[in-house]
Design goal:
The protein has about 80 residues and is mainly α. The chain has helices at about 10-30, 40-80. It has one domain. The two termini are about 30 Å apart.
C-alpha cells in the first residue's frame, strides 16, 4: 500500500513535538478539570478528571496534526512557486 502525499509531510520531529504537547495538554486538563467533578474523594475526582481529559486531548492531537500538515504543505507550495 503506497503512502498518500500528505503522509510524507510530517517528520519524526513533528510527531515527537505533537506527542509531548499532547501529554502536556492531558496533564493540564486533568489538573484543571478536577474541581468540576462530582466526587469528594480526591482519588475518584482525579480519575474522573483524567477520563474527561482524554477526549479533549484527542481533539488537540487531531487539531495539531491537521494544523501541521496544512502549514507544511503551504510552505512547500510557496517554496515551489
Amino acid at each position: 500500500m503506497e503512502n498518500a502525499p500528505y503522509q510524507k509531510l510530517l517528520t519524526k520531529t513533528h510527531l515527537l513535538i505533537g506527542a509531548v504537547l499532547t501529554l502536556l495538554v492531558f496533564i493540564l486538563m486533568s489538573y484543571l478539570l478536577r474541581p468540576f467533578t462530582f466526587s469528594q474523594d480526591p482519588l475518584i475526582a482525579q480519575a474522573q478528571a483524567c477520563f474527561t481529559a482524554v477526549p479533549i486531548t484527542a481533539v488537540f492531537w487531531f487539531a495539531y496534526h491537521m494544523f501541521m500538515v496544512v502549514l507544511i504543505d503551504q510552505k512547500k507550495q510557496k517554496k515551489a512557486a
